[in-house]
Amino acid sequence: MERIIAKYYIETPYELEKAAAVLAGEQSSGTFVAVPGETEELKQRFAARVEKITPMESVSEPAIPGATAKPGAMYHRANIEVSWSIENFGYNLPVMVSTLQGNLYEITQFTGLKLMDIELPSSYADNFIGPRFGIAGSKKSAGVEGRPMIGTIIKPSIGLSPAETAALVKTLAEAGIDFVKDDELQSAAANSKFEDRVDAIMRVINDHAHKTGKKVMYAFNLSDEVDNMLRRYEYLVKAGATCAMVSINSVGLSGTKKICDQGELVIHGHRNGWGMLNRHPLLGIEFPAYQKIWRLAGVDQLHVNGIANKFWESDDSVVRSIEACLKPLFNQQNPIPVVSSGQWGGQAFETWRRTQTTDLLYMAGGGIMAHPDGPTGGVIALQQAWEGAVKGLSLAQTAQQYPEFGHSVEKFGNK
Amino acid sequence: MERIIAKYYIETPYELEKAAAVLAGEQSSGTFVAVPGETEELKQRFAARVEKITPMESVSEPAIPGATAKPGAMYHRANIEVSWSIENFGYNLPVMVSTLQGNLYEITQFTGLKLMDIELPSSYADNFIGPRFGIAGSKKSAGVEGRPMIGTIIKPSIGLSPAETAALVKTLAEAGIDFVKDDELQSAAANSKFEDRVDAIMRVINDHAHKTGKKVMYAFNLSDEVDNMLRRYEYLVKAGATCAMVSINSVGLSGTKKICDQGELVIHGHRNGWGMLNRHPLLGIEFPAYQKIWRLAGVDQLHVNGIANKFWESDDSVVRSIEACLKPLFNQQNPIPVVSSGQWGGQAFETWRRTQTTDLLYMAGGGIMAHPDGPTGGVIALQQAWEGAVKGLSLAQTAQQYPEFGHSVEKFGNK
């Protein structure tokens, strides 16, 4: 019978074998005392199995509190692998998450536990379609080839009217932008009703497409309750929109999958709230595991922060996240990594050097909107940055050859 | 205009006022550079506002990594309050969560950030019904008055067939149990199809109700994708079930609310995954804030761990969680606190002493199923424990007067 394997990074004041066995017991057939009915046959079929324990360093202070340990105890770290038969939960994503990421974080035997990766059996490919559009579909829809999609976020995050937003989109479209998105804080503010914003923006985008053949992709934030999201989705389809944005952590797995399953729009998965799940090195979940869950749900575009971002995340972690999105999962479409946070074009060089890919949605907010030559200059500067980077030019060489990117460097280069 | 207030416990190497201002800016109209369109009028209407800063202790080591701080910096802790106009997101729960719990956890100015509580404006009462059943509806449905509902979890968590599960439910019903639930790991295992389990169990429960007038509440774990949950919900209603269980973190906010909105079944909200969101003292969310979000979604029963539980959570935290559920929110029904984890009746005394309430769903898994006199003895022992506690007897006195509880003490008293 096929099994799902979860890889954890753990810390425990107990023997590693014992702590791992508690995890496996708690998350399958065990409880705190033996109970009638827990037969050998049942255990054989449904018990989680500790597959592998790789001891790592030991430390003298626990990473997170709540363990029962003797004074002076050492805390042992390890990478462990635990497996479950797919007979336990089949192809039910929420129950898979409850099994792999449920009560185990509360177990006193651990002073640290992070889900690092998941290995899915091949039958999952028959039960989950994955991203309908992914990299190829996103780029094709926006008419982009041979370079990253260049995108931006409407800023100020919240407060602009539909007309003001549409005017900005017009400027950006004329500047050659590929992608624009609502901020995750904006869905339907008092002065920007969702439908009004769609009408105003799609008028601009459809006009521009009619004139130029290029349809700018706009990710409208439809995050809300299920029925409202479905209503908004239909509205978007009728208006000729190509993309919808979901704040995946806030909406949750079942709601997000319901939206992905509609299959007509590219789904932009915004991971706001991610810091809560990931920032501690020994609590929560790492992106390689996280992105697999959302790929199964069908998300087409996934945020990964960016090189030298304004947030806490390290470049190494960002590079790992980009690589995770670009690794194959069965024969499914790959989600396009959404590079964002404090980006202005200067990071294109290091991003290219470390990932050697243009299969990115490369987003700049302030980096475009606050460009010295205005948003038009901002879009051009980003295209120039990537052109330079892929050609093998340095940042300085690119700044010299391309005036708009040069102005970016003057304004943002010391950030 | 009404405002929503969020209370955070923060840690920062920066001046408290500066760090708080960054949070407010990031989560409303600001970005990393000033942008055109960010007018004073717009800021006035949509900017988040730092309402209050209460400095706390300073420490020499950061609680979580990722901050940009000078070597030797001190890390200042504070309770802060930030408010947003409801014009920003209205009555959209996912966008409210993205605003109050979104990118802010990734801000480098913080080395710790926890959402402690939320104050909701009164217009929320007109837009969210809250729990349809709550404490009163749950107790009434199960025929319980003047004492906690006594419940148990089917153990082994996973592996029993529908017939085996139903046989156990029969034993428990005859012993006088009020409530039984699926484990969160069990929804539809290979040997326990959801519908088959419903058929087998509801036959027992309906028979028992027919004979005795008492309908045992069974929380069937319908957690899954939205359409499957709705299908299962309908199946439950037709079968005469009174309750459905949702793993709220795994299913997510939109999916859970969709289920609560059906309004015919009591919704048992299982918070597995909670440790990931809460275990670190300076990362994530505290229960007083968390439970409000799920009350707005309409969850009727909410897990709070229990006194002397088998997990990491302290008694103080459990008591605070019970109190949070019992505090009024508008004029809505209160969710019934689900006390569980390592409970066997011995904790009834301390639970009563500290909360003085019987408005609880008091759950014991192994504590009932592994009772020396069998599950029947386990149920009786729990009722006796609560009877003794409410009468003002001590554990020892209750053990002496009531034989089944006495046997519990012999078996579990040293745990």
Automatic annotation (TrEMBL), chains A, B:
Domain Ribulose bisphosphate carboxylase large subunit C-terminal: 135-411
Top-level taxon of origin: Bacteria
Pfam families, alphabetized: RuBisCO_large, RuBisCO_large_N
Keyword terms of this UniProt record: Magnesium, Metal-binding
Domain Ribulose bisphosphate carboxylase large subunit ferrodoxin-like N-terminal: 3-124
Family designation: Belongs to the RuBisCO large chain family.
A GO molecular-function descriptor: ribulose-bisphosphate carboxylase activity
Biological processes, Gene Ontology terms: carbon fixation
Signal sequence coordinates: none
Protein name: Ribulose 1,5-bisphosphate carboxylase
Family annotation (SUPFAM superfamilies): RuBisCo, C-terminal domain, RuBisCO, large subunit, small (N-terminal) domain
CDD domains reported for this sequence: RLP_NonPhot
Bilayer-crossing regions: none
